[in-house]
What we know:
It is built from 21 helices and twelve strands. It is α/β, with parallel strands linked by helices. About 50% of the residues are buried. D-mannonic acid (CS2) binds near residues 187, 226, 228, 299 and 370. D-mannonic acid binds near residues 227 and 369.
Amino acid sequence: MSRLSLRTVAGLPEGVVRPGIDPARVSVGILHLGLGAFHRAHQAVYTDDILASDPRWGICGVSLKTPRATLPLAEQDGLYAVLTKGSDGTVARVIGSLRETLFAGADRAGLIQRFADPRIAIVTATVTEKGYCHDPATGALNRDHPDIVHDLANPDAPESAVGILTAGLAARRAANAGPLTFVCCDNLPHNGRMVEGLVHAFAGERDPALREWIGNNVAFPCAMVDRIVPATTDSDIAEGERLLGVHDAAPVVAEAFGQWVIEKRFAAARPAWEDAGAQFVADVAPFETMKLRLLNGSHSTLAYLGFLMRHDFVWQAASDPLLVALIERQMAEDIAPTLVRPPGTDLPVYCAQLMLRFENSALPHRTRQIAMDGSQKLPQRLLGTVRDRIDAGAPFKHLALAIAGWIRYASGVDEQGGWFDVADPLAATFEQIVLEAGGDPVLIAEGFLDLKSVFGADLVAHYAFRDAVRKNVVALFRDGARTTLARHLGIDR
Length: 493
Ligand code: CS2
């Protein structure tokens, strides 16, 4: 079977949506760090939508850790399909915005020089929460992180995203290539402001004059990004082949829904992403907090408790009446009261729509995929909400159960007694806690609740918070998730 490429794209079947402009006419104006599925189904699609009217904004996509994405994409001239999946079937669309690929491991110097191209006015990033090497509880640069230690010692051969960004900005300054905007597209609170703090801290260690230049020339808008994009499977690749009639080794699958809300804070030119449905606003915070707490907070709750209840996929967990009841009550009782309603949003409608999105069985999203890196995700998904509830003197009992679900999960043993790998930067610490606890759930709970980098000094020292979470952890170990949840909801089984 032939391969998807600029040569074969013209012959694709009728039903496949093709790039709106010949990709060969597009030049590169965006440098993107982290060429994972999410970027390809989100920012790259918004960009593809506007290229016909402004072909300056092609993307140079960079993989930082592995060439897994860059290799097949390079063989396909950067083309790949987005398979949008809903109850009415799958729609295939070929995206042409990715015009160049680069693997940092193969050409670090080339990557750093790419920042010095004056035609590049935007750098975007999706490197996941842990990719910023920050302390999750405070958002400050983790100077003990091995990649940061390495990069501060070797600023011209950086490994970390922050190190690469800083080295790239130094090259841009040296080349006098003009101001730049960095748009963080990861699920972190105040993401632009946070990365700005990290880059300033890192650059300040390296060269105060560079830090000052960054302060004057680089804008870091905050952004809320949303689209459910599970990892691509072999059966997705096979479905892509059936629809395209050619082989695409790098398709991505996604739901139909998408949202991108970006702070109006740009240092130089930008694509008119609003023409593709993005919203530019003065203050992203209400959108971002709503999304992180309601969508991602519920996602993580479904992932931890759902996994313990033997649900492999989110749609199964979101169809389990006990979990549905918990999520609905958690959203309405514990989370919604902490939110400022974003302009133009009806919160009950947003919550109802979320439940439908979670239930989408056409899009199998593994609970274990969402469960990973909990130590990096919990603070913005569940713990900020707990803090607001505590400050308001209000209960947070559903959140306490969800957090206990994380601890029960992160202990690395399922309810059948089987061990599994917990994917998390703190996995070794978790193992140590579990080992030292000698099987005592109280000690396991206490060990986790002492983790300042997750819970922050305030929650670690908060008696009522610890007590609520510990009780739930003990119940989860003793009675299992299903019984604990039924009792929590006041349902007799
Ligand atoms: C998910 C997110 O993997 C996860 O942790 O919660 O990737 C989620 O699907 C997206 O944020 C949706 O926009």
